[in-house]
Design brief:
Layout (H helix, E strand, L loop, with lengths): L33 H14 L3 H20 L6 H19 L1 H20 L4 H20 L2 H5 L6 H20 L9 H6 L7 H8 L13 H9 L16 H21 L18 H33 L5 E2 L7 E2 L8 H5 L13 H12 L11 H15 L3 H26 L5 H28 L2 H10 L3 H15 L9 H5 L1
Antiparallel strand pairs: 1-2
Length: about 500
């Protein structure tokens, strides 16, 4: 959980969790007329949300028809101008004029770093982008407004920051020789500086700048200019987006219905209610699970809208399956695998199924770049990546605690997985016991940990953790220590092992 119907995850191999639809900031102070506000007041009241939240949801839903219209435009400059203008307009209608002024700061700093000092532009954009984002987090502390039903543009600023940084890093990589580069660096590096309108179009591209998903400048340029998999020479027929869009819209409706059904029964305020602390241990654990389960449907709803918007534009297309006949894949638009999250057999896989594109970004631009040549990644890379993810979300104690917790959770789950992989096929029953143990461990620790992410304050986080005797903190530490003592033999290499 999180904010503006928030954002945020992490990566198969590394592992970082970003439980966020990015937060919010600049409290909306629109100067809309009274004539416009009165109908919105009654409409907002009828569905139980504030007027700023309703305005945001309407603009967010509008990204779908606007994204459809982008399909009708010629390639090149018209698509870039359209992407930029629609992004600016919808941001203004959602959050007011100040939102676009805030976007300008990291965008201009990032572009200036590419223009003036290419050899270090990635590093400069990283510190400028995160520096400004942290400043906004500290100044506005929008999590408090979010908990009271408010909304602002911080979530969009968070997504924008990642785009600005990746553009500069990839332009920096364009100076390097291909030998020794990872596949992602080879695929996304920029040899030539994008024009200013290409850059702005990428940063504010309609349908993705509100809550993601994050994608690469190279992918955007190929889509806007009809190159790569979007070219007329590409293999396969032109993919039809309509079936996948309808599926995403049906998922959107189901997720919102689930959230509206559950949220009155499992409010976050219960964690500070004296009656909660009078419950028994198992009932408290059960409530923590249901509170997390309820909050996740909010994210599923928002990301489903983003997915529909990106698919209908065509930008979400990521190639064809190898089946006969081949089917179009829309992986670039996918930000969550609902069943993958709810039935995760290991905490390690959660970054690969939750806030997927931000997880991928963290893997490519933080985790992998902290690994020294010839050395294997360890807990340092995982913890550093989790720290970046926590800072990106905001400086509330609940975020920091959650992401440290998630690093411990993943490390403990890896221990169980290594034991599981070391069991020979002849002991299938014992192996299945370990599989179930990892599933139960993940279910318990994840929902315990995410309470901090939802309540944000140090007092509420510690109170909720303490109410169940810190079981979700103690258990991962015990597993990590046991892993130092009970060291399984090395199993044969397998696909599953590689994924871990």
């Amino acid at each position: 959980m999180n904010r503006n119907i928030h954002h945020a995850a992490k990566y198969e191999d590394t592992c970082s969790l970003t439980f966020h639809l990015p937060p919010s900031i600049f409290h909306s102070n629109h100067s809309h007329s009274l004539a416009m506000d009165l109908p919105m007041d009654s409409m907002a009241a009828s569905i139980g949300v504030s007027v700023p939240v309703l305005r945001f949801l309407l603009c967010f839903a509008a990204t779908i028809p606007f994204s459809f219209l982008s399909r009708l435009l010629p390639h090149g400059l018209p698509k870039h101008l359209y992407s930029a203008s629609v992004g600016v307009t919808l941001s203004y209608l959602s959050f007011g004029f100040s939102s676009n002024l805030h976007y300008l700061v990291p965008m201009l700093l990032g572009y200036a770093s590419m223009l003036l000092y290419r050899p270090r532009c990635g590093l400069l954009a990283f510190f400028f982008g995160f520096g400004y984002l942290i400043g906004c987090h500290v100044f506005y502390m929008s999590g408090d407004a979010w908990k009271e039903g408010g909304i602002d543009a911080t979530g969009a600023l968070m997504v924008l920051t990642l785009k600005v940084i990746s553009s500069a890093v990839n332009y920096n990589d364009g100076l390097l020789k291909e030998e020794g580069l990872r596949d992602a660096q080879k695929n996304y590096r920029l040899i030539k500086l994008p024009s200013l309108i290409e850059y702005v179009g990428y940063c504010l591209c309609c349908g993705t700048h509100f809550a993601g998903p994050v994608y690469e400048m190279k992918e955007y340029l190929d889509w806007a200019e009809g190159k790569g998999i979007w070219s007329s020479e590409a293999k396969g027929p032109s993919p039809s987006p309509y079936g996948a869009t309808i599926r995403a819209l049906l998922q959107t409706g189901f997720c919102m219905a689930m959230y509206l059904k559950l949220v009155p029964h499992f409010p976050l305020s219960k964690f500070t209610d004296p009656t909660y602390h009078e419950w028994g241990f198992w009932r408290k654990l059960g409530y923590q699970y249901m509170a997390g389960f309820t909050a996740r449907w909010k994210y599923y709803f928002i990301w489903s809208i983003s997915e529909a918007s990106m698919i209908i534009s065509g930008l979400g297309f990521s190639g064809w399956t190898g089946s006969s006949p081949p089917k179009p894949r829309w992986d670039r638009a996918k930000n969550v695998d609902i069943l993958g999250v709810e039935f995760a057999k290991s905490a390690v896989v959660i970054p690969a199924v939750w806030n997927i594109q931000v997880s991928t970004w963290l893997r490519h631009y933080v985790y992998e770049r902290l690994i020294q040549n010839g050395k294997k990644p360890g807990f340092f890379q995982l913890l550093a990546t989790q720290t970046v993810s926590a800072v990106w979300h905001g400086l509330y104690p609940g975020y920091i605690i959650f992401f440290v917790q998630s690093a411990l959770m993943i490390a403990g789950s890896r221990v169980i997985y290594r034991w599981q992989q070391a069991i020979p096929p002849t002991m299938a029953l014992f192996k299945n016991v370990l599989v179930f143990m990892n599933f139960a461990y993940t279910l318990l620790v994840l929902n315990y940990s995410c309470v901090g992410f939802m309540v944000l304050s140090l007092h509420e986080t510690i109170a909720s953790y303490g109410s169940v005797y810190y079981v979700g903190t103690v258990l991962p530490i015990v597993m990590i220590l046991l892993g130092k003592v009970i060291k399984p033999g090395k199993p044969a290499r397998s696909k599953a092992r590689k994924e871990q």
